């Protein structure tokens, strides 16, 4: 969750939504994102809305404390119940992200999940995920999460090479993420993801192959692999600007992506989104698919974003301001926007084109259709799905996904 917040109109103090946003809500899936904004240290590439103890000292008082955080987030879940009314929907997915959610006690994460269950109810087959830092969990911690209702865990591995982890300022040791997969399986987790990053300055093709091999050897059923994006204002951006480490170029990113596709496909993984692979339909991250398909989700926590029925809003960034608003009985919302039909059409193209199922051609206007025909002839879209009325990226198209999307939207 990037730290910068957009502009928008004010959010009502009680968080109320327009009636149009709640119309036919029972027909739409509902998910919850629970943001935990704490980290032990700040990674050099990170631009997320997270805080270390040093960064919070003296800026939020007791309200920003990790010790009180679970209760504060529970208060927002209860606010969500009031705002969404007597909607009979059960929650389909819950995703606890950060930050490092596992800096909180396992019982705190279970308590936060319990609030969603108590206020809304969970679907019988609900997907319940937490992100985890490999160094912040052990078998007992994972067992508590599993017993408390979590059934999916995503470990931040990033790389198997120590020198790459050092550039990223990651604090875990090589080998620990793989051990975590075994511990999660032993605790009874149905689905385990490993998050990887490629294109770190100083990383070689062989380093990336070693990372993929280590990840696959651990036995997850889901792998996410993202190209490193150097965000302005981060420590890594400053180091690159000073010439301390080189910037990785787009050609290197493309080569690493092809290596990932080759290794993952050979191991029985299929892509279902440009940066995500799973061994089965059940292994796909349903929560992220809610985002990609424009469903409803409530994001609880500092800086968290929500979307319900074409209304998008976001919370204040700082944990102290967030907790203060809830303590005063106010919505922590900082701003919102009501999406037009055109906004939603464009967003569907932007997001659905990245999926294995692609986007329906009926979303495209005349110029977009012309661009899609050019993309087809250039080998960027698959012929079979196109004939059936869908724009689906080829492997080459996945390498150029952002450019293809821009052309189709225009």
UniProtKB/TrEMBL annotation:
The keyword Iron applies. InterPro entries: Coproporphyrinogen-III_oxidase, Elp3/MiaA/NifB-like_rSAM, HemW-like, rSAM, rSAM_horseshoe, rSAM_sf. SUPFAM superfamilies: Radical SAM enzymes. Transmembrane segments: none annotated. It comes from the Bacteria. It is found in: Cytoplasm. Its main location: cytoplasm. Keywords: 4Fe-4S, Chaperone, Cytoplasm, Heme, Iron, Iron-sulfur, Metal-binding, S-adenosyl-L-methionine. Residues 24-270 form the Radical SAM core domain. The keyword Heme applies. NCBIfam families: hemN_rel. Belongs to the anaerobic coproporphyrinogen-III oxidase family. HemW subfamily. PANTHER family: COPROPORPHYRINIGEN III OXIDASE, RADICAL S-ADENOSYL METHIONINE DOMAIN-CONTAINING PROTEIN 1, MITOCHONDRIAL. Probably acts as a heme chaperone, transferring heme to an unknown acceptor. Binds one molecule of heme per monomer, possibly covalently. Binds 1 [4Fe-4S] cluster. The cluster is coordinated with 3 cysteines and an exchangeable S-adenosyl-L-methionine. This is Heme chaperone HemW. It comes from Streptomyces ambofaciens.
């Amino acid at each position: 969750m990037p730290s910068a917040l957009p502009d928008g109109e004010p959010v009502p103090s009680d968080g109320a939504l327009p009636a149009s946003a709640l119309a036919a809500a029972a027909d739409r899936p509902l998910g919850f994102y629970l943001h935990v904004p704490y980290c032990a240290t700040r990674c050099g590439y990170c631009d997320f809305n997270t805080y270390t103890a040093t960064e919070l000292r003296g800026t939020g008082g007791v309200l920003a404390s990790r010790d009180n955080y679970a209760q504060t987030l529970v208060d927002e879940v209860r606010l969500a119940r009031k705002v969404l009314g007597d909607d009979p929907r059960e929650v389909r997915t819950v995703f606890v992200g950060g930050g490092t959610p596992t800096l909180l006690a396992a019982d705190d994460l279970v308590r936060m999940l319990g609030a969603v269950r108590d206020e809304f109810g969970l679907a019988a087959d609900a997907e319940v995920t937490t992100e985890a830092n490999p160094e912040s969990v052990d078998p007992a911690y994972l067992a508590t999460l599993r017993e408390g209702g979590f059934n999916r865990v995503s470990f931040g591995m990033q790389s198997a090479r120590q020198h790459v982890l050092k550039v990223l300022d990651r604090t875990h040791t090589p080998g620990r993420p793989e051990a975590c997969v075994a511990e999660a399986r032993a605790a009874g987790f149905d689905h385990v993801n490993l998050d990887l990053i490629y294109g770190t300055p100083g990383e070689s093709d062989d380093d990336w192959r070693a990372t993929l091999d280590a990840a696959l050897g651990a036995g997850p059923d889901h792998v996410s692999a993202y190209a490193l994006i150097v965000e302005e204002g981060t420590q890594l951006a400053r180091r690159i600007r000073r010439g301390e480490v080189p910037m990785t170029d787009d050609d290197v990113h493309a080569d690493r992506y092809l290596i990932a596709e080759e290794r993952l496909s050979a191991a029985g993984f299929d892509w279902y989104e440009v940066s995500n692979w799973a061994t089965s339909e059940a292994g796909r991250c349903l929560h992220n698919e809610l985002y990609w398909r424009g469903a409803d989700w409530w994001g609880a926590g500092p800086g968290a974003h929500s979307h319900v029925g074409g209304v998008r809003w976001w919370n204040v960034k700082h944990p102290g301001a967030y907790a203060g608003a809830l303590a005063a009985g106010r919505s922590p919302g900082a701003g919102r926007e009501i999406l037009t039909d055109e906004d939603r059409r464009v967003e569907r193209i932007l997001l659905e084109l990245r999926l294995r199922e692609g986007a329906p051609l009926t979303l495209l206007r005349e110029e977009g259709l012309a661009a899609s025909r050019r993309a087809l002839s250039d080998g960027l879209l698959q012929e079979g799905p196109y004939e059936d009325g869908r724009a689906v990226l080829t492997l080459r198209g996945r390498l150029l996904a952002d450019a293809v999307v821009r052309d189709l939207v225009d």
